[in-house]
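new request in #modeling-help
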Amino acid sequence: MIITNKRWIWLCALAMVAGCTTDVREGAAPGVQVRDSRAPQAGIRYNTVVIVDKSLQNWDGKVFDPPWAEAISAGPKEENKRSKIAVESTNSRRTATGTLEVWAILRNRTDFPLQIEGRTQFFDEAKAPAEGPTAWKRLFLPPQSVATYREYSTKVEGIGFYYVEIREGR
Amino acid sequence: MRNLVVVSLLVSLAAGCMSTTRVDNEPGRRTVYDDPSTPGRVIGVGIESQDIVSITDEMVRDVLAAPAVAGRSSPPRVVVDAYYFRNESSSTINKNLFTDLLRTQLNRAATGRLVFLAREHAGMTEKERALEEEGVVTGGTQGATKPAYGYDYRLGGRIASLDAIDRRTGLTSRYHQVTFELVERGSGVIVWSKTCQFKKTARDDEIYR
């Protein structure tokens, strides 16, 4: 069989269509978890601080960073971290009344003053939500400076984990 | 030629199969509701909902972490209302927005570590007691009406402000100080206090009611 140019184009188009899958949208959509090796930041990591605003935490995925690089160095390379905020440390401890105090030490990596806001969600030992998110608390970060975000739980017992979210001040 | 066709077909197939993280990254439906904990579409230099929510939340957590108040073996009786909470600022604000939210959130979160007295509703219980003494009504399921409790601590505080206006640009800068204190009955000792401060700069063309 002789394949002409026209047939060849049609074959390619057919192959592309075959490669695509179409969904039929019927019924309610189930809530889904994102578990994808290409999206390692998706999901909740307990006892951590996350930067929710992309304007603050801009990971540049275009920089050459092959998977085997992580095997020889811990985490993404420094030049790939383009965040404006660095989370220097985070931890928690009990207060004198038994509530949980959570803190995160944040550093402004830029030469400009930044306003950020933080809030915390508390979970029990079974990682079930124990307290709704706190109100957003504003924090001022002068250029190249360090500031501490601090929050307290209201419950005394049953707090096992925390999750701190940081966003740009509104 | 045949090899070229096979390669082209494979590439086309791969392109069709190419998967992405399919996120519908678009803004949600428009609504008239705003998140009270975040600045809305009308923003000025006065005290706004996000200030009330964040300040109150901070106070609740701080009170429950204070050993002098929430660490006592017998739960202290507390009155939290706006009677001794004064607004001396240039911002128009209903003080009850602070004290009501503070009391209800504290009451829910304290779970017995503090006991809250409804001194604002003292007339309600007094009237019922009078009716009971006159024999108009009977006692409740828990027997005769008990005398009203006295408090251990009562909320006091102040909202203060400092304004600066640039006449050339019309910009107004307002610094707020919101102070809360728990005062011990009789001795007058301040067992807990905390101040929140914030400064806003904008054109003062918003009207707060």
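bot summary: Chain B has one domain: 44-203.
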